[in-house]
Design a protein that fits this description.
Number of strands: 5
Oligomer: single chain
Radius of gyration: 14 Å
Bound molecules: zinc ion
Largest sheet: 3 strands, antiparallel
Shape: globular
Distance between the termini: 22 Å
Strand order of the largest sheet: 2-3-4
Mean pLDDT: 90
Helix content: 10-25%
Length: 88
């Protein structure tokens, strides 16, 4: 998943890039059915920006990862708080 910050904001706030492996609260797939339920509800929530593929399609939650049915891209991790209903 990509995040964009403009150069000016990065300069003002002295922001750098964080490597994917440095993000501590990522949960790798596979996930349990209850975790997939939470993630699917998160993806359909109108309150949060969903996980999207590189083409901007909304991923579908499955036990083996977040899957895009249009381009068949798969994301094999999600933030822990999207898997345990604590996002609600
Ligand atoms: Zn896609």
């Amino acid at each position: 998943m990509q995040i964009y910050v403009c150069y000016r904001c990065a300069e003002i706030n002295n922001l750098g890039t964080v490597k994917d492996d440095d993000i501590a609260n990522r949960m790798p797939a596979k996930w349990l059915p209850e975790q997939v339920k939470s993630l699917a509800a998160y993806q359909n929530s109108s309150q949060y920006f969903p996980y999207v593929c590189d083409q901007g399609d909304i991923f579908e939650a499955t036990t083996v990862g977040l899957f895009c049915p249009r381009c068949e891209q798969i994301l094999k991790w999600a933030y822990d708080w999207t898997l345990d209903w604590s996002w609600q």
